[in-house]
Amino acid sequence: MHKLTAIVLLFLWFGCARLTAQDPRFAQFYAAPLQVNPAFNGVFEGRFRAAVNYRVLYPTLLSDRPFRTYAASYEHRLRVTQQDYLSLSGSALQDEAGAAQYLRTQVSFSASLIKQMSEGKGRSAEQFLVAGLQGAIGQHSLGFDRLWFSNQYNAADNDVDFSTPSGESFASERSNFLPDLHAGIMWYGLWDDNQSFFLGAAVHHIAEPQVTFLNETGSRLFRRWTVHAGGEVPFTRQLSLLPGAMVMRQGPSFSITGGGNLRYTNREWKELALRAGLWAHGSNQVANSGPDFGLDAFIFTAIFELERWNLGFSYDVTASSLRRSNYSRGAFEMALTYFHPAKERRRVRCPKY
Fold it and tell me: Per-residue confidence at 168, pLDDT binned at 50, 70, 90?
């Protein structure tokens, strides 16, 4: 554990000079849609949607200082024409990385336009095109009092003396403010209440803002490119499959998440639906011969739908070589979403995800 802690602290310290880390992600990415693509803004059935997400990663390895990610969002949709809608939203994200309490905080505001492309007569699909733009402001911070440096190491006692000056010249425990811009587009089609497909793409950190804790030029935050797809495939009126996939690329980091949830509904007035699924996450990893792509984790999910509420749980089972250290115990995640019904008789049809 002492060696692992030292490695984690060294990684965080090196990251202050060159921030090349991947953005935080949720295993239930479909339950945190505004973190995936601004074009997801407003793509739901109802008047407004509110969601909260929580993820804790590697508590077995990092004890009381695991990686934690929190997110919250609110979306409100407005009718523009008989078929088209404008949606406005606000969201917040905070990611805490490990023992040094490295925090990334971001507040975002989004707008999207939902345009109906076809009405779906006969066997053809009712089609929509969504374009979204998201502006954000963020800041990074680091608990320097939790770090130690070579000047503070006492070789005679094989210990660290935190009272000794570190000799490091940090300007502040907080970085500069980071104005940011994200954009995305998405198409979706619906053939029936339980048959749909969607495809989207997004780019985050368009301007690649600079991040620094020093009184000098910092490092660029790499752009993040995302492509995602999903839908619903019916087996019966009660049972369907919701497959999905998300591919992300950010600088040297590359990851793929894919799988699906089985959904069963009783088709009654007070609709109750249950979902259970299996997903897999892969990413580029450092092997003996250098960086390589490998399987990172299997994700087991359970989601409960009751009228206006969705409550989802997931657990990551580590599949990489790290499983020998954390006994395959990876991450736990929870997502809660509330949908408020629309006032209009003519509802907006949207895919389930």
Answer: low
